[in-house]
Design goal:
It contains two helices and seven strands. By secondary structure, the chain is mainly beta. The protein has one domain. The longest helix has 11 residues.
Length: 153
């Protein structure tokens, strides 16, 4: 579970050990999606009146295509995750690093913070391997399968 009622969090810190599914509605078109979901661990606790702080980590596997040869690529992703959530009435609520409480200030939903950190950590243009030769720009042959036989200028 990655969404917590404020009334529960007001009673004390909560340990988080949950997954964000790759088909969750929080993902946007064009996002680098996790292959099997994102595992999230950490702790969420109060940080003042109407404020909550999450400190933890995420891990998963991102899928994509090699930027040179278009082969399928899976890349392990691991990152620390720290997020501050505040009620809309908080004086710092409009700052870009502060996330709003959900459902009219009644819940702390970690999913948008997880999505944002995931997108920042995943490679936009991954490689299947550093020495990938890709396709020949002249004839389109896969140069990883062997030398190109076209007459390149």
């Amino acid at each position: 579970m990655l969404s917590f009622p404020v009334r529960v969090l007001s009673q004390g810190a909560v340990q988080v050990d949950a997954d964000l599914a790759s088909d969750d509605p929080v993902w946007l078109e064009g996002d680098s999606r996790p292959v099997r979901g994102v595992h999230v661990t950490g702790r969420i606790s109060g940080a003042g009146s109407g404020r909550f702080y999450f400190s933890g980590a995420l891990s998963g596997v991102a899928g994509g295509e090699c930027r040179r040869c278009l082969a399928p690529v899976e890349i392990a992703v691991q990152s620390d995750l720290h997020a501050l959530f505040a009620d809309a009435s908080d004086e710092n609520a409009d700052e870009p690093d502060v996330l709003p409480l959900g459902e009219g200030g009644l819940t702390v939903d970690l999913r948008p913070a997880v999505r944002e950190q995931w997108v920042l950590e995943t490679a936009v243009l991954p490689l299947c391997r550093p020495e990938c030769l890709g396709f020949c720009p002249t004839c389109g042959a896969d140069r990883n399968a062997g030398p190109c036989t076209c007459s390149r200028s």
